[in-house]
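User: Here's a structure from my thesis project, written as structure tokens. My advisor, Dr. K., wants to see whether a designed sequence matches the one we expressed. Can you design one independently, without my sequence as a hint?
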């Protein structure tokens, strides 16, 4: 018999916040495991995908577009540059700034990461039909849009 002290309280099991937190934990683990099999992290994926979508950019612009904090961005770019997934070049308009570009090796790595990401999504959503997956995505997007919009309209704290 399972140890009663290890059971989740029944009242929690119907709370959307509890369910979302548990599902997010599973999603994070599945994605992290998939990426680690390619010696990559979510930050690597976000960097490469941002470069592919928006093209070469400064570290600051990449940080804003990808949501990677500046302190983590430097390490992520260094790791990707060491693996020849990105290259740095001096900005011709401002020599103090570097422009980061995606390499052909980076594009290949991105394709592999996208494949692993799709596999992780399939594993996470395995019990849901395609229609249920679409509906879940729509509902989660609606929740996030609502809360993100609310953040934009708040006054900054002093």
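Assistant: Designed independently from the structure alone:
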């Amino acid at each position: 018999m399972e140890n009663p002290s290890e059971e989740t309280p029944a009242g929690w099991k119907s709370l959307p916040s509890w369910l979302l937190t548990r599902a997010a934990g599973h999603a994070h683990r599945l994605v992290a495991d998939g990426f680690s099999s390619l010696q990559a992290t979510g930050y690597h994926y976000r960097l490469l995908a941002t470069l592919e979508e928006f093209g070469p950019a400064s570290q600051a612009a990449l940080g804003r577009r990808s949501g990677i904090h500046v302190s983590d961005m430097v390490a992520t770019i260094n790791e990707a540059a060491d693996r020849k997934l990105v290259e740095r070049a001096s900005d011709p308009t401002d020599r103090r700034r570097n422009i980061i570009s995606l390499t052909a090796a980076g594009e290949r790595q991105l394709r592999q990461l996208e494949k692993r990401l799709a596999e992780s999504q399939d594993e996470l959503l395995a019990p849901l039909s395609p229609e249920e997956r679409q509906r879940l995505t729509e509902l989660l997007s609606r929740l996030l849009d609502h809360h993100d919009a609310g953040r934009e309209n708040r006054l900054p704290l002093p």
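When you compare it with your expressed construct, this may help: Strands lie at 57-58, 86-91, 94-102.
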